[in-house]
Amino acid sequence: MITAALRRAAEHQRRFDARFAAYFDTLTDPAGGALDGPQHGRFPARALDLLRDMSLRGGKRLRVTVLHEAAALVTDQPVPGLEEAAISIELLQTHGLIHDDIIDGSAVRRGAPSVPYAYRDEYPDRPDTALGLAVLAGDLAAFLSLRVLLTSDLPPGRAAAMAAEQADVGATTVIGQFLDLERDFGPVPDLDFLHAVTEFKTTRYSILAPLRLGLLAADVDPAPYDRELRRYATALGIANMLRDDWLDLFGDPAVVGKSLGSDLRSGRRSYAVRALLAADTDGSERKVLDAALGDPQCDDDTLDRVRAIARRHGVDRSVQADADRYAREASTVAGAWRTRWRADAVTFFEHMPAWTAARDH
After folding, report:
1. Molecular function terms in GO for this entry (predicted)?
2. Is 187 exposed, middle or buried (0-12, 13-18, 19+ CB in 10 A)?
3. Beta bridge partner(s), residue 113
4. What is the per-residue pLDDT across 292-351, written as a single tens digit (0 to 9) for each?
C-alpha cells in the first residue's frame, strides 16, 4: 500500500513540476510577463532566475501531494484552484528555504549552491549587498505565493479565503523561525519546546495548510474538522522532523542532497542532537561532543566520531523509534476518516506517515 501511495505522490509531483516551470515562464516572458516588473535592471531578473532554479531544483513536493489528496477526500472530479494553491505552497516553501539558508549559513541546498551563497559567489567583495539580495529574493517568493491565489480565476470569496490561509500560515512560520533561534539559547530545551518549534516552523505550512487549502479549493469548510486535521498534522509533522534530524546525522549525503551534520555544526538542538546530549556518555565522549557542538569548522572525521558515539548509545535507534511511533499515531487518526471521506484518499493519508518516517532524503 505504501508503494501505491508513492505512485500517487510521484504522479502529483510530475504534473506539478511541469506546471511550476510554466508558471515561471509566465513571469519572465519577454513578450510581456504576468508580473509587472521593470524594463531595466539586472537584479530583479536575476532574483527570478534564482527563485526559478531553487524552486524547480528538487524537493519531495509533499505539500503538493497533501493538497491534492485533501481535495480527493471529498471529490474525484477536477478541482479548480488546486494548481494555483500548489504553486502558492511551493513558493512559500522557497521563501522559507532561502531564509533558512541565510540564518544557518548553509552553502548547499538540494545538491547545488543555496541562494545566499550564489549571491556571495557573484559579489564576493560586497557581502552586505549579497545578503540583502538573498533576503529580498526570499521576500519576493513570499509575496508571489499570495499573488498567485489572488490573481487566479477562482471565485473571489474562495480566493480570498485561500490567500488568508496562506498569509496566516506564513506569519506562523516566521514565528516558528523565532522559536527555532530561541531553542538554541541557554540549556538544552525540553521535548515540549522542540514540538512547538516543529509545529510552528514546519507542520502548519507543510501539512495543516495544504490540508485546509485542498478542502477549501473543493468548496468544503475545513473548520468543523479542525481538531482532527491538527492531530494528524501534528503527529505527522513530528515524525517528519524526527526523520529529518536522523538523516542530518546518519543519512547518505549523496542522497540527502546536502552536507550532513549541519545541526551539530550550527549548535542546533534538534531532536537527534538533544538525544545525543542526553545520552549517558563518558568524559572522553562528552569532550568530543562539546567540541563539535556549534563548531562550523567541525570536520568530517570529527563528525564520524560523533556519529559513532551516537550509535554506541542507541541515539539512531531511539530517534527512529520515535519517528515510527508518531507516524503510527498519524495513521490511526487518518483511519477514522473512513466513515466520512473517500476511501482511496483516506488510504493515502493512512500510509503516507510510514513512508515519511522511512524516507532517505
Report:
1. (2E,6E)-farnesyl diphosphate synthase activity; dimethylallyltranstransferase activity; geranylgeranyl diphosphate synthase activity; metal ion binding
2. exposed
3. 108
4. 998 989 898 999 999 999 999 999 999 999 999 999 999 999 999 999 999 999 999 999
Domains of the chain (ranges, CATH numbers)? 1-221 (1.10.600.10), 224-361 (1.10.600.10)
What span, in angstroms and rounded, lies between the C-alpha atoms of 338 and 230? 17
Classify each residue of 164-184 as buried b or exposed e, where b means 16 or more C-beta atoms within 10 Å of its C-beta.
ebbeebbebbeebbebbeebb
What whole-number distance in Å separates Cα of residue 330 and Cα of residue 243? 15
DSSP alpha helices (H): ranges in the chain?
A: 2-28, 42-56, 62-72, 82-104, 115-122, 127-150, 156-182, 191-198, 209-217, 226-250, 253-256, 262-266, 271-277, 283-292, 300-312, 315-335, 343-356
Q: What is the pTM of this model?
A: 0.90
Rounded CA gap, 151 and 146, in Å? 9
Q: What are phi and psi of 345, to 5 degrees?
A: -70, -40
**For the residues 271-281, what does the mean pLDDT come to?**
92
- Of 44, 58, 138, 38, which Cα lies nearest the Cα of 91? 138
CA–CA separation, 159 vs 137, rounded Å? 25
- Beta carbons of 88 and 54 less than 8 angstroms apart: no
Which residues is 109 bridged to in the sheet?
A: 112
Distance CA 211, CA 67 (A): 6
Show the cell assigned to 154: 477562482
Structure confidence at residue 253 as a pLDDT band (50, 70, 90):
confident
Distance CA 87, CA 140 (A): 14
> How far, in Å, CA of 332 to CA of 102, rounded?
38
